[in-house]
């Protein structure tokens, strides 16, 4: 029995590099990365539109995972600092607190969506954010 393709997606913005995840009989999943102009691409029998659709689905799922993770981290941080009824007040009152802003930046930069993003300008904006509200609004743009 041969390895089973689990997923396929573009891994760069130019859509020239593809990652295919295969699962072996023993359950181990491994990646295979190659360029679109590689002869192996033709052997896959996949059209670009299908790969684009799979890439969009992967990106949507990653964004949702990132959002859930980020929301959870924000909720945990807020709950540690204040009780739930004062969450909005905490964010507004701590909006320019350098420690709170720093912790929020670190939390955002650790998420998979931001970590794997190639958007240097947006990452730079996040690093330069001066308030909690700026950190959250920039992070949600990834």
Structure notes:
The protein has helices spanning 39-44, 48-81, 87-93, 98-109, 112-115, 120-128, 132-139; strands at residues 4-10, 17-23, 29-35. The protein is elongated. It has a three-stranded antiparallel β-sheet. By secondary structure, the chain is α+β, with helices and mostly antiparallel strands. It contains seven helices and three strands; from the N terminus they run βββααααααα. It has two domains: 4-46, no CATH class; 51-139. A hairpin with a 6-residue loop joins strand 1 (4-10) and strand 2.
From the alpha carbons, calculate the radius of gyration and give it in angstroms. Answer: 20 Å
| Uncertain stretches | none
Terminal CA distance reads 40 Å
Give helix and strand order, one letter per element, not per position: EEEHHHHHHH
In percent terms, what proportion of residues is strand?
A: 5-15%
Walk across the major sheet and give the strand order.
1-2-3
